[in-house]
Automatic annotation (TrEMBL):
The chain crosses the membrane at residues 53-77, 103-120, 126-145, 152-171, 177-195, 222-241, 247-263, 283-300. The lineage of its organism: Bacteria, Bacillati, Actinomycetota, Actinomycetes, Micrococcales. This is Protoheme IX farnesyltransferase. InterPro entries: Protohaem_IX_farnesylTrfase, UbiA_prenyltransferase, UbiA_prenylTrfase_CS, UbiA_sf. It catalyses: heme b + (2E,6E)-farnesyl diphosphate + H2O = Fe(II)-heme o + diphosphate. It comes from Agromyces soli.
Length: 306
């Protein structure tokens, strides 16, 4: 008998839960959340109403599996720098909850399953776009760009734009200008979303040898770049109004939230150039709220008669 009275039967469920939790953490569920937030509204816009419920669910499941696979590959590739950065020291490959082999097998298996799932339950175009998203994030961003250039998050962010193309293709089996505009909104939004985070964890990235913009440039330069990309994001969001025939709800939300997003980036820059204490996480979290509200409006607008 164990001194604590613990038995094999009581330890087994606890071990299973820890292992399951580690696999879930490997997929970066918070990133998946945001990707699904943009997928469902895109499908509603593509359908110009509510799409078939099973198609919507199948696409979200396939998209979550695809994003989870990419996240798991990224954790495997970045396991060396994750051990150095305080922000990532709780990840499963750092804590030893999962072995490198377990993570790699899981990443390959989940990725393959996501492609098959989307091919069977949606269509071939959505499946191929999902494969492209995984390759872009794993090869283009994680292996090639991340440790070599300060522009890593700009071009590497393309992978995060793919869910809108996947969602549109799942409904229409083709691509047109509206999903391209939605793609560009996320592409331009990614730098002003992520660069404030890199300001917050500048020391972490510097210690890991990752040349994020905040590491190789001063706060004022980062703040200026955040402003420029925020303006471009909002301008692109307004293009959707004539191109997709958006109505009053989307137009109002795009203008109001866009003005607020731009204000927050200017505030960050002004504090930086005056050498005052900055609050980059305010812009980081605000950018998530901004994108969520814009895509919520994308999903609501087609359902209304005005």
């Amino acid at each position: 008998m164990q001194a604590t009275g613990e038995t094999t039967e009581t330890r087994a469920p606890s071990t299973f839960r820890r292992k399951l939790g580690a696999y879930v953490a490997l997929t970066k569920p918070r990133v998946i959340e945001l990707l699904l937030v943009v997928t469902a509204p895109t499908m509603i816009l593509a359908q110009e109403g509510l799409p078939d419920l099973w198609l919507l669910i199948a696409t979200l499941i396939g998209g979550a599996m695809s994003a989870g696979s990419a996240g798991a590959f990224n954790c495997y590739i970045d396991r060396d720098i994750d051990r150095v950065m305080k922000r990532t020291q709780g990840r499963p490959l750092v804590t030893g909850e999962l072995s490198d082999r377990e993570a790699l097998v899981f990443a390959y298996g989940l990725g393959a399953a996501s492609i098959v799932w989307l091919w069977v339950f949606t269509n071939w175009l959505a499946a191929l776009l999902s494969l492209a998203a995984i390759l872009l994030y794993v090869v283009f961003y994680s292996l090639i760009l991340k440790r070599r250039t300060a522009q890593n998050i700009v071009w590497g962010g393309i992978a995060g734009c793919m869910p809108v193309l996947i969602g549109w293709a799942a409904v229409t089996e083709d691509l047109s200008w509206p999903p391209v505009i939605l793609f560009l909104i996320i592409f331009l939004w990614t730098p002003p979303h992520y660069w404030p985070l890199s300001m917050k964890y500048k020391a972490d990235y510097a210690a890991a040898g990752v040349p994020m913009l905040a590491v190789v440039r001063g706060r004022a330069q980062v703040g200026l770049q955040v402003i420029l990309y925020a303006w471009a994001t909002v301008a692109c969001s307004l293009l959707l109004i004539p191109i997709a025939g958006m109505g009053l709800v989307y137009s109002t939300v795009a203008v109001v939230t866009g003005a607020w997003f731009i204000y927050e980036t200017h505030r960050l820059y002004n504090l930086a150039i005056r050498h005052e204490q900055v609050s980059p996480m305010r812009v980081f979290h605000g950018s998530i709220v901004y994108l969520s509200l814009v895509f919520l409006a994308v999903g609501i607008d087609p359902l209304l008669p005005f």
